[in-house]
Amino acid sequence: MNNLVLETKGLTKHYGDFVAVDNLDLNIKKGEVFGLLGPNGAGKTTTILMLLGLTEPTKGQVRVLGFDPARQPLSVKARVGYMPDQVGFYDELTARENLIYIAKLNGIPRDQLKNRVEEAIERVHLTQVIDKRVNTFSRGMRQRLGLADVLIKNPQLIIMDEPTQGLDPELAHEFLGLIHSLKEEGTTILLSSHLLHQVQVICDRVGLFSKGRMVLQGTVPELARKVLGGAYRVQIKANGPDVKLRKALQSLPEVNKVDFANGVFEIEARKDVRADAADAVIKAGGRLQSLNVESQSLDDIYTRYFEEVSHESVN
Amino acid sequence: MSRSTERIKKRDEREGSPWTGLSAVLTKEMADHLTGARILILEILVLLTAVGTIFTALKSINSTDDNQFLYLRLFTTAQDPLPAFVFFLAILVPLIAIALSFDSINGEFNRRTLSRVLAQPVYRDALLLGKFLGGLLTLTMVFSAIWLLIFGIGIFKLGVPPTAEETGRALWFLLATIFYGGIWMALAMLFSSIFRSSATAALASIAVWAFFIFFWNIVVGLLAPVLSPQQITTVQDLVTANQTQLLLSRVSPITLYADIATIMLQPTERFLGFVLPVQLDRAIKTPLPLGQSILVIWPQLTGLIAATILIFAICYVLFQRQEIRA
């Protein structure tokens, strides 16, 4: 048995002339957390809807847990939990009532309803407000209730569309913690987002989406190597003879290039050259004021990649 | 042989029953309707008109000596300043039906619950039919309660029990009332799947209602002469002209419902529409038996049910094809 949970081949969706998703090949292994990244309107949600059989693909094949979502949607939807972006609830019902409805739709036997609902609520720490109406819930609570709603069917795969959108940093962090605990239990998770620094923390692999195409795919360090050339960026603020300092920095081994702007030198190097650079500044008669190395973040990869793409298309 | 296997294969293309989860949707919809503030307002409204008209009707019934079909006359007797209860029904039933379902589909869109619900292992079929049946059952419950109330007041005030004939007629009329509501409910659902805004859907439904209540008769009056003989010289011309007019006016569900009310609640009425004096020659003005009355309104009743199913089917097709992303 292969351990692919999700597999698409040449998945394509047209809306009239508009190509929403173009020839997507995506593989997700069991137990993996995969991040689908890209700007709004890149085709992330359309892809997710096709994976669930909620929209029919124009072309291509999809296999989710071995089922074809277009032909066997019930089997797929019984095993896959989907949390839409800005998840909505019946406001006039309580959290418990909302979940009982979903549990019933999933065909959970009557005698297990109560337990399953309470368990799911417990896992997202909402037990205190289980009998409160959802219209009294804050954004963060709704999002957690959305996760409980997904957990109630004990899914083998969870798909989340923009799970941290609209949450303040603290809530987002808390929510990511919940996702992380699911990951440790071995649940496979596919999430889409445009908030890269958050995704970077929990994703094993990411795919960069742009205009319906998956343009890059891999782990974050892999992508960094591909796009940034495995580069480290060191920023140095120093007083002293600019030209001389620059020359000294440029002559360091492993340094690709040195930029100078607003009293700050920016070094791009193949390894972390902080110690050598500090040394060089002092030897060249400069006074070192600050020294920073940028970690390789998805944000950089992302911005750099789309910069390059737009440059290319201009040329 | 090969054809039948092919058919089986086709049926297998979509796995499972389209009605999986129907009972869950139905229960939820009915619970929503029955506990909502909306139904409370509507119930009070219908209850007030029912009680008001019944008590005024009782006054006039008590002052006459005609003792036939007393219970049916509770529905049809009008006394100034109040019109009869059937008149209120013809106007209020559509409003109640529309009020129950004008936001059934777009409400789910706007609350962003649709994609979450459809991500559960159910088909859209179950959701739509569950919503419709939930509404229709709610209507059935409300009107059954009111019918019982009217009969209760009747027993209390008239002092005679209803006859089997009266009960039978009232039940057939109840059936017609429910499907009369069904048409408007299906229409409101249709608009609620076409328009994303609930207010627009409600307005569109009300517009259709107002059109049939206020303007359809005028339209019929203008159209009928155009479609039928201009110069009426023979009896045949007269009959044709009248039949055209009747046909046109029966496009309106209100006319169909009024026809059924006339025949069912007034057993002495034996014709609908235009009748030549010749046809009435030597007819005795006695009540028709229930079976015969049913035969008279059969086309109207099936018309109401067919229209309900037709409008629901259109709504069904539209909803199945809709993209669910907001």
In short:
Chain A has helices at residues 44-51, 73-79, 95-105, 110-123, 139-151, 169-184, 196-202, 220-228, 242-250, 274-283, 298-314, and strands at residues 4-15, 18-29, 33-37, 59-64, 80-83, 157-161, 188-193, 205-210, 213-218, 232-239, 255-261, 264-269, 287-294.
What's the helix and strand layout?
The complex is a heterodimer of chains A (315) and B (326).
Chain A: E1 4-15, E2 18-29, E3 33-37, H1 44-51, E4 59-64, H2 73-79, E5 80-83, H3 95-105, H4 110-123, H5 139-151, E6 157-161, H6 169-184, E7 188-193, H7 196-202, E8 205-210, E9 213-218, H8 220-228, E10 232-239, H9 242-250, E11 255-261, E12 264-269, H10 274-283, E13 287-294, H11 298-314
Parallel strand pairs in A: 3-7, 3-8, 5-6, 6-7
Antiparallel strand pairs in A: 1-2, 1-4, 8-9, 10-12, 10-13, 11-12
Helix pairs in contact in A: 3-4, 4-5, 8-11
Chain B: H1 2-12, H2 22-35, H3 37-62, H4 70-76, H5 85-101, H6 106-110, H7 114-118, H8 124-158, H9 164-194, H10 198-227, H11 235-249, H12 253-265, H13 290-321
Give an account of the 3D structure.
The complex is a heterodimer of chains A (315) and B (326). Chain A has 315 residues and is an alpha/beta fold. Chain A folds into two domains: 4-218, P-loop containing nucleotide triphosphate hydrolases (Rossmann fold), CATH 3.40.50; 231-295, Alpha-Beta Plaits (2-Layer Sandwich), CATH 3.30.70. Helices cover 38% and strands 29% of the residues of chain A. Chain A is built from eleven helices and 13 strands. A six-stranded mixed β-sheet of chain A has the order 5-6-7-3-8-9, sandwiched between helices. Chain A is elongated. Chain B has 326 residues and is mostly helical. Chain B is built from 13 helices and no strands. Chain A binds chain B through residues 45-46, 49, 52, 54-55, 71-75, 77-78, 80-84, 86-92, 101-102, 104-107, 146, 149, 153, and chain B through 13-16, 20-21, 24-25, 27-28, 32, 36, 111-113, 115-123, 323-325.
